[in-house]
Structure formats: structure tokens, C-alpha cells
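Hi everyone, sorry if this is the wrong subforum. Our group has a chain we'd like a structural model of before ordering constructs, and none of us has done structure prediction before. Sequence below.
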Amino acid sequence: MIASDDLPRLKWAISAIVIAIALVAAAFWHLDRQRKEALGELDRAQRAYRNAHARYVNAQRDEDQLRHVIARFEALRGRGVVGPEARLEWVERVRRARESAGLERLDFEVRPRRPLRASDASYRLTASTMRILGDLPHEGHLLAFLDRIFDETSALPRLRRCALSRLAEGGDGGSIGFDCEIDWITVQSEETSS
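Answer:
Right subforum, don't worry. Here is the predicted structure as C-alpha cells:
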């Protein structure tokens, strides 16, 4: 056991031990604080990496989609769908389709071009509606006629409506009249519209 008269001799040793314990505790506290800061910095760096990686993956996906859209747009431009309407080609296409489908009477009119959707973009979808009236020996001729029209390459034809009606009966069982509307869809640039 330690006697009271030994305390003055041990006070410097005890003080050194207390100071050493305090220094060790301060060192542990400082190291723990640095560890927490380092973990926080690591967490921030990992989040920044994940965000950057996600943006990179999205940019790659967007680039792939953009390349696909550009390729499709260039294909449409190559077909003549982009730019001024090729109305004379459409009329010739309808006449050739009438001849190949064996239709005798065919009347048609092309209405003015109109936008399909309001847009502020430099390119916009437009359509010109063509109304076609004619007589058919039977329904199959109409399908052959429409198939020929839908082979059109200078526009994207879309059938809006088609009505069939039985005409006066003759010796051959009568014929069928038809009244169809077809939208000729094109892409118009703002440069060509002004």
C-alpha cells in the first residue's frame, strides 16, 4: 500500500500518468473525429460518383436514342417526307393506283396543308387531306387501290375514313361507290414555310 508520505514523491509520476491518459484520450477523440470526417467525405464522394455515373449512363442512352431518331429522320428526308409537299407525285400515284386496281371512275381533291399539332419547333408535322370518290366492281379493288397508295414514298399516307355504298343495280349485280379521305403527312421545316 502507498503511505501518505510517499504521495509527494509520486505526485510527478501520477501527474505524468494523468497527462498521458488525457493525451491518449485526446488522440483517440481526434482520430475518431478524423475517421468520421473521412467516412463522411467518402460517402459524399461515392454519392457524387453514383450521380456522375447515372448522368453518364443517361447521356449514353440519350445519345443512342438521338442517333436512332436522327437515322429515322434522315430516312424520312431521303424519302422526301421532310420539306415541300410533292403533290404532283401524289396525284400521279393515285392515277397509277387507279389503273392498277382497275377503277373506272375516280375523282379527288387535295385540301390545303395544315399542321397536325401546334409546335414551336423548327420542324412540325403537317397533313394535306385528299378526298377520293370512285366506283368499284367489288371491295377487293378498293384494297388494291389503297395498297398502291400506301406504297407512297414522298409522304406518310394515313387513311382518315372510308365509306362504301351500294350503287344502282345493273346487269352485273351493281357496283360499289366509295368516299375516302387520306392524310398525306409530311414534315415541314420553318425555313420552307416562310
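For your construct planning: DSSP finds four helices and four strands in the chain. Strands lie at 106-115, 123-136, 156-166, 176-189.
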